[in-house]
Amino acid sequence: MSRVGIVLLNLGGPERIQDVGPFLYNLFADPEIIRLPIPALQKPLAWLISTLRSNKSQEAYRSIGGGSPLRRITDQQARELQSLLRQREVDATTYVAMRYWHPFTESAVADMKADGIEQVVVLPLYPHFSISTSGSSFRELQRLRQGDERFAQLPLRAIRSWHDHPGYLKAMAQLIEREIDACVDPSTAHVFFSAHGVPKSYVEEAGDPYQKEIESCAELIMKTLGRDNPWTLAYQSRVGPVEWLQPYTEEALEELGEKGIKELVVVPISFVSEHIETLEEIDIEYREIATEAGVSNFRRVPALDTDPTFIASLADLVETSLAGPEVDLDEAAALPARTKLYPQEKWSWGWNNSSEVWNGRLAMLGFSAFLVELISGHGPLHALGLL
To answer: In 3D, which of 194, 296, 297 has the Cα closest to residue 252?
Structure first.
């Protein structure tokens, strides 16, 4: 069997307080995060946001120990997956490719070439596809393939999403069941799924399948759990004047408190690793909101991290991918066709015409919205899971 490189895609995060500013700059310099009609403004805007928001964001990271644990956890996931694949007689080596912090995607590609990898499986550590997560990472890999003949020649299979994989669903259900059983009255404990939000325009105008996959995933997890507990799905981290996917987590928590719900089992459904959004936003901010609303037992389901059932599901995904046809990055990132809302020229660096309509609209709204949020201090970084 040929030597296989498994590329694990993730966002990345500042590991030390002094990393926060440069990390934010990298984040906002990505046109998939803020797309401007004038590309020359991208880097000056990224510098402005990272400069103005560093102190506020540093406070959040101090509250969880001084930095993000995401790289450490992702490295552990990579080691566990590599070990399991080799036990299954797959000659695999895992590589971590972070989008906005070390180790960057370029490093993973360079390491694979140095190791003599003969084929590649791209595995996003995002169960649900979104333009701004898996889509952005796919695009970065495609850019690197276009500029590197040797990398471009490697057979590549990209896994688009895996929100409905039985092993993943089982791992989630097991973690949820433990927290339910730890409640005073397990039969009435309310299961609360909190997913990362995206602007509604991502779904309605750009065709992002994220909402549909999240909703399906929550239903499948509850079916796998096999219990009759009531449950709710809401979306966290909204920001700015545009409408985001609803219901919003903070409002849903308040409504449940008003209904007399006392025991809440909170599930971070979008995330497979502990990071700023689980450790600070859910554990600190949303816990406080729920407690003030009358919830007396707020139990947060831990992220999957290196849960053995979860790692086994990742290995299953890799083996299934290797047994199938090549799936290129464009195919993995494809969006459904959308009707153009008005005539315009296609920008050379977009997914397609319809997504450029969406991105152009979002940029004009987003540019002013981000500046307003920067001044008010209400956290545009929440929109991206970074606070």
So the answer is: 194
Nearest to 380 by CA among 28, 68, 134: 28
Amino acid at 303: A
Q: Is the dihedral of CA 247, 250, 256, 258 positive or negative?
A: negative
Of the candidates 132, 115, 113, which has an alpha carbon nearest to the alpha carbon of residue 124?
A: 132
What lies within 8 Å, CB to CB, of 88 at 6+ separation is 315, 319
**Backbone φ and ψ of 120, nearest 5°:** -130, 140
Blockwise average pLDDT, block size 10, the chain, 387 residues: 94 94 88 75 89 91 95 98 98 97 97 98 98 93 96 97 98 98 98 94 91 98 98 86 90 98 97 95 97 98 98 98 96 74 31 31 42 44 39
Say if CB 103 and CB 78 are below 8 A apart. Answer: no
**Which strands sit side by side in the sheet containing 156-158, from one edge to the other?**
92-98, 4-10, 119-124, 156-158
* Cα–Cα distance, 119 to 107 (Å, whole number): 17
Q: Of the candidates 130, 133, 125, 139, which has an alpha carbon nearest to the alpha carbon of residue 95?
A: 125
Neighbour-count burial for 172-192, b at 16+ CB within 10 Å, e otherwise: bbbbbbebbeebeeeeebbbb
